[in-house]
Amino acid sequence: MFIKDYIKDVYNAVRSLLTGMKTTGKYFIRPGEIITQQYPENREQLHLPERFKGEVVMIHDENNEHACTGCTACELACPNATIKIITKFDITPEGKKKKALDTFVYHLELCTLCNLCIIACPTDAIKMAQTFEHSVYDRSQLTKKLNQPGSKIKEGVE
Amino acid sequence: MYTETQIISTTTGNSVSDALDGTGELMINVGPQHPATHGVLHLVITLNGETIKKIEPHLGYIHRSIEKMCESLSYRQFIYVTSRMDYLSSHINNHACALTVEKGLQLEVPPRAQVIRVLMDELTRIASHELWWGAMAMDLGAFTPFFYAFRERETINDIMEETCGARLTMNYIGPGGVMYDIHPNFQKRVKSFIQLFKSKINEYDELVTGNIIFQNRMKNVGVLSKEDAISFGCTGPVARGSGVNCDIRKLFPYEIYDKLQFEEITETAGDSFSRYMVRIREMHQSISILEQLIDNIPEGDFQAKTKAVLKLPKGEFYTRVETARGELGVYIVSEGGTTPYRIKFRSPGFSNLSALDHMARGSKLGDLVAMMGTLDLVIPDIDR
Prior knowledge:
The structure holds 2 protein chains of 2 kinds. Chain A is α+β, with helices and mostly antiparallel strands. Chain A has helices at residues 2-28, 73-77, 116-120; strands spanning 55-58, 65-66, 83-91, 97-107, 126-129, 143-145, 152-153. Chain A contains 3 helices and 7 strands. Chain A has a 3-stranded antiparallel sheet with strand order 3-4-6, with no helix packed on it. The longest helix of chain A has 27 residues, at 2-28. In chain B, a hairpin with a 2-residue loop joins β4 (173-174) and β5 (177-178). Classes of the chains: A alpha+beta, B alpha+beta.
């Protein structure tokens, strides 16, 4: 009886091994089903969905105009103090003082890409970009100024 | 697995002859940097020959004081931090926090948001179990299953990336609903994932489950009786492998789980193999939940109307959800302000780890990896 059980055990073990090997062998002879991506080489074909959260950018139109009023809603919504908004006072044609955006400072190194600032923005001035290769040699390069030089607020955005 | 010399080479401090005292016991360190611990878990193991006498887990290597951080964040902001606790089921963590805040605000979540949340939860659960399956087979020396598991998990990650905008730390759920509506492709892609998963799940059984060598390494290894599972506070697949009915989705249904048809999976043996089988069978149940919901997403809002600044009334609020690893409880003490006074997370990994010493005593060192694999430890969840 002992010998019989022993041989049965060996038979079952070998059979179950071969079942597994069959699955592996199936893929071995069909290399078309390989799913690995060759990352740096496939950069051209790499397509990220439009909702992908890469970094915060400010939307500028062709006239170099943005929609940021400097209301600091995004700054308050941010959990990590990633955003710092510096405002200035513009003089309107009527001669009144009006608060406007001077510099939109964005610390990418602190950002966790949680999307709360985008949701908080009342004028949709900022959005998430699909860039993801953020490594730089110096940390200070990750502190960015989001409004382009010379840009101003769009007409009619309050 | 490890040979004797490999283990001794990981011993820090004294040489082997110093470590051996009169009792013939040897103390070794597994971790904090060790491939089988999947993170910075440090186990001090007392051995007698190859038999484990005692295991003492040392925590604290990845403590980020998440509970303390949450005290200075508002009720919208603190949810993103919880993605970093159990990063493999980050979506379910966010869900638990959102449910607690909604309980405090007495907020009614629109049905569409509820269904989207449950769909995302179950996708996350499958993704988490897939990763566990691959990593556990790799712990036991089988390398290929990891790639098979990641192939299917990649499909879920792509769905998450398209709808939530991120692959691992989604931060998609907020108080009152979800951040934005599902992507137009979502239903189509989930359906194709269900098809793919059903055609591939048999490969899992062929490769690993049916393998006699694998079964011999799992059966009667790390036995945890039903009474012990309850007294150690184990939850999730670990306790269900010992025959404890502890599925929060069944016991205390949240969202729409009480309207869904699914089984609570339990096994009775309490060994590593039953914990393994619980997770494999749970994946089938999650697929069945996805099938029930994917064509029945109700129309309507995906977000309830909330104020810009959330203030919870004075009081204490507790909710629990079933994550991929067990019961996650979120306890908020509010003083009536915009930030919580105190937050406590009852994480499943911490309680499940506490049973490791009990179940490993008297067994061989090589079996420890099988036990740790079936506990499905995520270290940032144990050590917040």
